[in-house]
Amino acid sequence: MGMEDHKLKVFCTVAETKSFSKTSEIIHLTQPAVSLQIQALEEIYETKLFDRSSSTVTLTPAGEVLYKYAKEILALYASAGKVIGKLTGLVKGSLTIGACSNTGNYLLPSVITDFRKMHSKIKIHLLVSNTKRVVEMLNSGNIDLGLVEGDVLRQKMIVKKLISDELLVIVSPNHPWAKKKEVSMSDLTKEPFIFREAGSGTRQMIEKVLARHGFSPQDLKVSTVLGSTEAIKEAVENGLGVSIISRWAARKESKYGTLRLLSLKEEKMVRDFSLIINKNAVSSNALDEFLTFLKSYPFDKLLS
């Protein structure tokens, strides 16, 4: 990748996000640096590429033309790299993965470690964020692959189910329920409950399941709202209440007996972890290798 295509990448990101501030976040450049890259392109073509008059940034007719070609040019660069890589037989390069917190914190670290044992030349960058943000990063081409939970709209993406995830009720080993296998929803409403903040995929799923059985979040005796799964586990271990989290997130604690996992009587809370890939992007050799590796990965062995 040279200077020119870096400018094009910045340009395409502004065109797609319609925002200089979002672009600076995604590409990790300051806003003035983003503006400079756009200015440099405008000087080359001696015309304005964006119309900045309204509240959103829109492409001018010249900008529309450049955008169409820029996407093709960037795809050609990617193809060239891929073919040359195949020719030299060296699978190297880097892979940027965006993942939601459950997959990013509890599932991928083991997978990436195992992958790197076989492919030490491939660098992997893992960015952990929420599902909405991961989809944005994928659409703007700043990650090669996303791993998200729950439902995603298949706009410009290919969505493939990776594995199932089950949400389970967690209690401390000293809790009266610790010996039970399952509890009912009405049991749940009687205990102090520890919730994730609004907007988390896990919380949305819990609310959906409750609603299906005629309960609302207001029926829960919510004692605390915490911003991370780690904080929730800690609170439950310390007897501050019960909660519901991904069984992947409770892997270690269940193994060492510091948390007990129970299922819900009324229904299994199951959702998918999905891979998302940009429909139009040219995949690299590194990405192909990683996807092949994921296909045959023994995820169940991680849970045992």
Describe the structure.
It is a single chain. The protein is α/β, with parallel strands linked by helices and 304 residues long. The protein folds into 3 domains: 3-87, Arc Repressor Mutant, subunit A (Orthogonal Bundle), CATH 1.10.10; 91-163 and 272-303, Periplasmic binding protein-like II (D-Maltodextrin-Binding Protein, domain 2); 164-271, D-Maltodextrin-Binding Protein, domain 2. It is 46% helix and 23% strand. It contains 12 helices and 12 strands. It has helices at 3-17, 20-27, 31-45, 61-88, 101-118, 131-139, 185-188, 201-212, 229-237, 251-256, 285-295, 299-303; strands spanning 50-51, 58-59, 93-99, 122-128, 145-149, 157-171, 182-183, 192-196, 221-226, 243-246, 260-264, 269-278. The strands form 3 sheets. Strands 3, 4, 5, 6, 7, 10, 11 and 12 form an 8-stranded mixed beta sheet that branches. Strands 1-2 form a two-stranded antiparallel ribbon. A hairpin with a 6-residue loop joins strand 1 (50-51) and strand 2. Helix 1 packs across helix 2 (20-27), helix 1 (3-17) crosses helix 3 and helix 1 (3-17) packs across helix 4. The longest helix is centred in the N-terminal third of the chain and has 28 residues, at 61-88. The radius of gyration is 23 Å and the shape is globular. The mean pLDDT is 88.
Which secondary structure elements does this structure contain, and how are they paired or packed?
Blueprint: H1 3-17, H2 20-27, H3 31-45, E1 50-51, E2 58-59, H4 61-88, E3 93-99, H5 101-118, E4 122-128, H6 131-139, E5 145-149, E6 157-171, E7 182-183, H7 185-188, E8 192-196, H8 201-212, E9 221-226, H9 229-237, E10 243-246, H10 251-256, E11 260-264, E12 269-278, H11 285-295, H12 299-303
Parallel strand pairs: 3-4, 3-5, 7-11, 8-9
Antiparallel strand pairs: 1-2, 5-12, 6-10, 6-11, 6-12
Helix pairs in contact: 1-2, 1-3, 1-4, 2-3
